[in-house]
Amino acid sequence: MEADEFRQRGREMVDYIADYLENINQRRPFPEVSPGYLKHLIPDEAPSSGESWDSVKADIERVIMPGVTHWHSPHFHAYYPTGNSYPAILGDMLSDAIGCIGFSWASSPACTELEVSVMDWLGKMLQLPKEFLFSEEGKGGGIIQGTASEATLVALLSARTTIINKQRAENPNMTQGQIIDKLVAYTSEQSHSSVERAALIGMVTIRTLPTDDKGSLVGDTLQAAISTDIEKGLIPFFLCATVGTTSLCSFDKISELGPICNKYGVWMHVDAAYAGSACICPEFRYLLDGVEHSMSFNFNPHKWLMVNFDCSAMWVKDRTLVSGAFEMDPLYLKHEHQGQIMPDYRHWQIPLGRRFRSLKVWFVLRMFGISGLQQQIRKDVLLAKQFGQLVADDSRFEIVGEVTLGLVCFRLKGPNSANETLNKKINDDRRIHLVPSKVKDTYFLRFAVCARGTQMSDVTFAWSVIREITDKMALIPTG
Ligand code: PLP
Questions:
Q1: Which CATH number covers residue 384?
Q2: 304: Cβ below 6 Å to ligand 1?
Q3: What is the mean pLDDT of the chain?
Q4: N- to C-terminal Cα distance for the chain?
Q5: 13 C-alpha to center of ligand 1: Å?
């Protein structure tokens, strides 16, 4: 395909994308295929000579769409949202066209410099403490990681190197292995599984601490765990606290946890993957009170800030502690401006290569403006509250936890088994899609407001489907 054909096919593809997103509510949110469906629709081997675009394009509806879960359908209420907007798609198109691998400033200066600027913009939108922003005096700064999981892993490995260096300075006879054996990380039983995975990769012990009745990790619990571990001769070094947990959207008490971490030299990382976006609204900013005590923080603009996957914004108070953990400097990657005012992001992440992700963030921030993004968050929260009211008004149901942002956890009063049946019937029905979760042995359903275009009519539609299925369940004789 040469430029002339690309111009034409590109326009067609833009039309296809716009049609897909405009009419997505006509597609069932969850596909009806079984595992292995696609293998039978395409040949076993790649074509020996090139095909026409028309034959490729025909296969989008024949091969791909039957197996797509439509995350941007207004009837999709599973997991948490993932961002999608036309400015972000345009940003990704340009990023793909430029196609640079921005591992260092020299490898594509605009890629690094725009990221530095948009990370400061985002940090200011969240009213992050100044120490997290880039400045000539301070040591802080932000980076776009691919996912929250990577941000947590980078934070844990940075904390691990920091504590190893400190311990070795104090106890030169201890080997790195002996120190690692004594390290203890903490998180709550409600945190995302990526935190435990980070500890697995970092080969450190992790304790998943119990939460209170609201699903929050509180200071006393952490204090008790740290004291017990110190008594055993272990070395507490890392806490991953969550603002907006995955199952319940509960909030760890970071303003209690932070001072405890600082007292014991424990690196507090705050994961606000979903809820962080809401903190651009002044009325939700209180959720981040205490973030000033953390060493690192992340949230996912690719969840709730209209930016397409992948984009997890991460800030650190001391970037030298991150680059200190990851720095590798072969001659072929060096450049003459290294170590000057601009970072070489390759030292802040696991992979070497990195895409020009800041373009899509820049386009989104400029085209929606802060007020446009706040409007979207407020609309989604309002819709969740309205759904919560519909649930509360039906005496067969109860709300689990609190509806603070765009997630409503709810269940039929009574045994878990009835809720398991309800969940299965809703998803088998396929008009809407949601996923369940379980906290302290209570099984419940999660209703997340996900797609950008979700309206009140979609919320009432979802509730009518749930009620209809519940009504039918009541007619089925039990035992
Ligand atoms: N942390 C929290 C609180 C989450 O809710 C999620 C996913 O929903 C993650 C981390 C994982 O996000 P990612 O896919 O960006 O690694």
A1: 3.90.1150.10
A2: no
A3: 95
A4: 64
A5: 31
14 and 161 share a domain? Answer: no
Our mutation pick for probing the ligand 1 site, out of 271, 302, 308, counting the most ligand atoms within 8 A of Cβ, is 271
Question: Which tens digit of pLDDT belongs to each residue from 343-385?
Answer: 889 889 999 999 999 999 999 999 999 999 999 999 999 999 9
Tell whether ipTM is more than 0.95: yes
- 345 and 305, same domain (yes or no): yes
Instruction: Tell whether 261 and 400 lie within a shared domain.
Output: no
435 Cα to the center of ligand 1, angstroms: 15
Let me know whether 279 and 166 are in one domain.
Answer: yes
- Ligand 1, atom nearest to 191 Cα: 3
Give residue 158's domain range.
Answer: 100-355
CB-based contact 60:16 (threshold 8 Å): yes
The rounded Å distance from CA 148 to ligand 1 centre is 5
Same domain for 454 and 328: no
What residue has token string 């035992």? 479
What is the whole-number distance in angstroms between the Cα of residue 304 and the centre of ligand 1?
Answer: 12
105, 61 contact by CB (below 8 A): no
Q: What is the pLDDT of residues 7-52, one digit of tens each?
A: 999 999 999 999 999 999 999 999 999 999 999 999 999 999 999 9
Q: Is the CB of 242 under 6 A from ligand 1?
A: yes
Ligand 1, atom 7, lies closest to the CA of 246
One domain, residues 216 and 122: yes
Residue 78 domain flag: no
Statement: residue 478 has pLDDT above 60: no
Ligand 1 site, residue 271, Cβ cutoff 6 A: yes
Output the CA–CA distances (angstroms, integers) from residue 238 to 44, 186, 322, in the order listed.
48, 6, 14
Note every long-range contact of 223-230, with CB atoms under 8 Å and residues 24 or more positions apart, other chains counting.
223/260, 225/186, 226/186, 226/260, 226/264, 226/266, 229/184, 230/264
What CATH number does the domain containing 251 carry? 3.40.640.10
- Ligand 1 close to Cβ of residue 374 (< 6 A): no
Does residue 192 have its Cβ closer than 6 Å to ligand 1? Answer: yes
* pLDDT at 477 (0 to 100): 59
